[in-house]
Amino acid sequence: MNFAFVGVSKQAEAAHTGCGDENFVALCDVNDKCAAEVYAKHPGTRRFKDFRLMLKMHRDIDAIVVSISTNSLVGMAIEKAEIQQRKNEDENEKKPGHGRGITEPASVESFGEDKIA
Q1: Separation of alpha carbons 101 and 91, rounded Å
Q2: Minimal CB count within 10 Å: which of 1, 3, 7, 92?
Q3: 100 vs 81, 93, 104, 106, CA distance in Å?
């Protein structure tokens, strides 16, 4: 699986350790100094300061591990839903009979802010 991480320092350490042998494709943190240790452990992994840019540039992300404050999660959920919808549309265009039975991604209301954390 291809993992992306949003928030890679301090509280996220347990998440990185728990995903030990997985393929880390992107690391995103606003503080390079705090994230330096994790960056050093994964030198070939792309680094970002903005998760929106990370989601737009990486179409091969299978899972995102988020270790940030809950007030930042709603916007991230919306962005990921939009990226996933475009990815699904791209894949469906390659299939015969594309466009049949495709559903819209879940809305933010269906996530519920209390369920995102």
Answers
A1: 14
A2: 1
A3: 19, 11, 12, 18
pLDDT in tens, 4-44: 888 887 777 777 777 767 788 999 988 888 889 888 988 99
Query: What's the pTM?
Result: 0.58
Phi, psi (rounded to 5 degrees) for 29: -155, 145
The tokens for 37 are: 């240790």
- Is the torsion defined by CA of 36, 37, 41, 42 positive or negative? negative
CA distances for 108 relative to 15, 57, 74, 84, angstroms: 25, 22, 7, 14
Tokens found for residue 35: 């994230």
Distance, CA of 20 to CA of 68 (rounded, Å): 20
**Residue 87 tokens, joined:** 């990815």
Measured CA to CA, the distance from residue 6 to residue 59 in angstroms comes to: 16
Domain ranges within the chain, ordered by starting residue: 1-68, 69-117
